[in-house]
Design a protein that fits this description.
α4 packs parallel to α6 and α12 packs parallel to α14. Strands 21-22-1-23 form a 4-stranded mixed beta sheet. By secondary structure, it is an alpha+beta fold. Helices cover about 35% and strands about 25% of the residues. The chain is built from 16 helices and 23 strands. The structure holds ligand EPZ.
């Protein structure tokens, strides 16, 4: 059954919503829960299809893994390293994350090659090379990767590129290894820090997460944890771009604006006003705290985790944006910001350096009347104030989100088909956008 969004665009956004825990923090954290036989409870989790699929993989391995309201409960006591079905493994790229934890705990593990992805080949060579350095023998038989190890021995691992997934997989494999593992040229994303904090909350020892060198001191076993992952900076960036496109003013809560610096820098250049807690005057902070106390936000940290954007709608173009590993401009908001620049009168250039096929949304933006062209890794956008309503189709997760927020800025009725791509990373995005004043509904075709 396919579903599409019906958007009646041209309305300014207004309102505030709270951001839920990050998909890209939860996927490795859920995988890391395989390393312990203790109870794990994860708080404030959105019901994303990627998360549901990974929980299903843990259940197929023999564990308990389920949503309980907005919490996720996991107990991997009865897990055994059996080969998970190909169909399930290839539904999500993140299935590769179970290798590290299973090899941390068991002498062998096998998986089918993870799903390819519309945005690029997404190699796993760095995962394999790193696991071999830890003492794992790995052979590929057809589409399966078979791994065996006697013990895991801590060592120095140099990553030729700061791969997020390889850093996370190797952190997990090293968590129960003998001795210390040093990962050099590690990824520095906030989700890496969050995984390290989760492993520490289980009793593991990790130092340096968030820098380019991470030290993991293996421990004998891990315990239990109740943990609230960081909020989703990519969803936040998506909604900031939505407001830039549609105009108006929105506030997003429960997000640490430090994670958004590269995005904020670009938004300020487009003529949007962006306010984080630290920018607020003393008087507005007092008012915010009073308002939040009435609204039930009691923790001081809520006040720090706050971002407001005001958009005049006449956006300025950006001469050059290049996606980079964190703390550079995130590839995961490249499509959403590309959609925004389609409305910024003048020439903007975007260079995508992480994935080889992340401009699929551009062909759909052209159906909205956007004036742009792309070749290889670079896209040139000649933005214009008004685009026209059309029927478009999501081709991948972030590209689908980009088309949805583009429609918010277009007077009239637009349709975005194949919204299942978007559901992988946004839980009922239409409800969030409605709460921010958009006219959007999900229709079953
Ligand atoms: C993570 O993917 C995210 N996914 C991606 O978010 C994100 O785009 C990406 O990091 C970069 O920030 C999750 O965290 C679940 P990488 P990952 O390993 O780990 C190449 C979204 O929209 N590479 O840093 O797969 C790879 O092909 C998703 O939420 C190798 O060549 O990213 C890619 O071109 C999309 N060999 C580049 O590195 C390897 O062994 C970055 O990959 C590993 C990666």
């Amino acid at each position: 059954m396919s579903e599409f969004f019906l958007v009646n665009g041209g309305k300014k956004l207004k309102g505030e919503i709270e951001i839920s825990s990050a998909k890209n923090a939860l996927l490795p954290i859920i995988s890391a829960s395989l390393m312990t036989s203790g109870d794990v409870l994860l708080k404030n989790c959105p019901r994303l299809t990627d998360l549901e699929n990974l929980l299903e993989i843990i259940r197929e391995l023999g564990g308990i893994a389920e949503f309980r309201g907005s919490d996720i409960f996991i107990n991997a006591k009865d897990v055994s390293p059996k080969l998970v079905s190909k169909e399930l493994t290839q539904k999500i790229r993140a299935s590769i994350f179970i290798l590290g934890p299973l090899l941390a705990r068991f002498k062998e593990a096998s998986i089918y090659m993870p799903g390819g992805c519309n945005i690029g080949t997404r190699g796993i060579d760095l995962h394999i090379v790193g696991l071999k350095k830890l003492g794992v023998s790995i052979k590929q038989e057809g589409e399966t990767i078979k791994c065996k190890r006697s013990g895991l021995q801590g060592t120095k691992i140099y990553l030729s590129l700061p791969s997020v997934g390889a850093t996370e997989n190797l952190m997990m494999a090293a968590a129960l290894a003998n001795g210390t593992t040093t990962i050099i040229n590690a990824a520095r994303e906030p989700e890496i820090i969050d995984l390290a904090n989760f492993i520490k909350s289980l009793g593991g020892k990790v130092l340096g997460a968030g820098t380019g060198t991470i030290y993991i001191h293996g421990v004998k076993e891990l315990g239990t944890a109740e943990y609230r992952p960081i909020s989703d900076r990519i969803i936040t960036g998506t909604y900031l771009a939505a407001c830039a496109i549609a105009g108006g003013e929105i506030t997003l809560k429960n997000i640490n604006s430090e994670y958004l610096s590269a995005m904020i820098k670009v938004l300020l250049q487009t003529n949007c006003e962006v306010l984080t807690y630290s920018d607020l005057s003393r008087e507005s902070r007092v008012n915010l705290i009073a308002h939040d106390r009435d609204a039930g936000y009691f923790h001081e940290k809520h006040y720090k985790n706050y971002i407001k954007i005001r958009s005049p709608r006449n956006l300025r173009p950006i001469s050059f944006i290049e996606t980079k590993p964190y703390p550079g401009f995130p590839t995961d908001v490249q499509p959403q910001f590309g959609a925004m620049l389609a409305f910024a009168k003048g020439a903007s250039v975007i260079k995508e350096t992480l994935f080889e096929n992340r401009f699929a949304y551009a062909d759909e933006l052209i159906k909205f009347g956007a004036n742009l062209s792309y070749k290889g890794q670079e896209m040139i956008i000649n933005g214009k104030k008004m685009l026209n309503p059309a029927k478009v189709a999501a081709k991948d997760l972030r590209g689908g989100a980009a088309l949805t927020i583009a429609a918010l800025g277009i007077d009239g009725e637009s349709i975005i088909e194949d919204v299942h791509h978007i559901d992988r990373g946004y839980y009922k995005i239409e409800n969030d956008l409605k709460a921010l004043g958009a006219e959007i509904k999900r229709v079953r075709a």
